[in-house]
Every structure is written in C-alpha cells, then in structure tokens.
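Protein in question quoted for reference:
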Amino acid sequence: MTLVGKLSAGGATLSLAGIWVWLGWLDYSRLGLIGAIVISIPLLLMLPGLWRGRLRSHQLASLISILYVALGAMEVFASRGQSNAAALLLPAGLWFGASLLYSRGELRRLQQTRQ
C-alpha cells in the first residue's frame, strides 16, 4: 500500500478517535456516548478494507468521509466556534483528501497497466 493509502487509513482511524473524543469525552450530555457509538458504526465497518488497501473501500470512504466533514463543520458553524467538533473536522478532512487521492492514483495505475 502506498503512503497516501496509509494516510487515508490513518485519517480514518484518527476520525474514529475524534468522534470518541468529541462525543464521548468532551460532550457533557448523557447521549454523547450513544451518539459516538451510532456515528462510528459505518467507520468501524470500513476500517479493515482501508488498512488492507482495497480500492472499493477507499472509494466508499471518500464518499462517507465527507459526511463526517459536514457533521463537524455544521456543529462548529451552529455553535459559532464554541464546539469541540474540530476534533472530528480536521482528521475527517485529512481522511477525505487522502482517500480521494488514493482512489485516483490507483485508478490511473490500473488504466496504465491495462494499456
């Protein structure tokens, strides 16, 4: 797996940690832990494929990671910067960019090997 693939899988793992830090630890409501569990389920299902470098997993991850970016941006915007959602927003942005670059690079590599 290339460096970008490892960055993508690492960004996904950091996003998972960001979810747990933001909702499970920094959020003071009772439902924060339940929200962290529900939000992290799709990410937990994708992590094995990301760490193995599967192209389909990285393609799906680029779509799903933008939802995590949108969730973090919406929370920061709605709270006027008072929320701790940057713990999710930054790693999810890294994850989105790296999975997008990995998918594009692998597709180009596959096209070149077919010719």
